[in-house]
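Hi everyone,

Forwarding the result from last night's run.
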Amino acid sequence: MSNESWLNTLVLAAAWVFYFAVHSVLASLAVKKWVAARRPAFMPAYRLVFNAVSLVLLLPVFFIMATNPWPQVWQWQGIGKITANTLQVLAVFGFVWSLKYYDLQEFLGLRQWRGKIAAPEDQEHLQISPLHRFVRHPWYFFALILLWTRDMNLAQLITGVLASVYFTVGARMEERKLLVYHGERYRRYMEKVPGLVPLPWRFLRVGEAESLCQAQSGLRES
């Protein structure tokens, strides 16, 4: 690669690492508790601000990707292209279908804002959707499919690699919070269901999922 390509690569990688670091820190329960202790009046707006900051910080990353020349790494051809496109459609369908199993009001922060909820912990009740019976983080799974089934230039490859690492690390950080919220029940769930990629021999039966959902707690991913 040319010196310019190396520089663009380093800048893009640094931009993604910065974004993921800020996103993880602001999503952490420790930071939420710190803010709640010092600025309790701000907490009802915390999730709204968090989502807004997350979107704004994506803009310079996308600007770097869109305004620099990037060499092509690979393109899907023939049956591979048909398979990749089919998986992309299924991933989008799965994501849209999964939305009805999430409390989007809380995910966006509208419920906290309207209800003046100052608690740093998530409020959504525990529910294990049909997808959650097979994989603990279905949105991350769908995102991985969308990342790795497209034609790749160097910027997309860097994004795919770093996002995959972030999903792996971020899922573990998220589950530390879920273990705090749900304790042994969530630990049992983790033992039964894989984290990011479904495995045919590891899943929850309907009755097992209903048993874990009996208490009034919340299951969701940031």
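The chain has a mean pLDDT of 88.

Cheers,
N.
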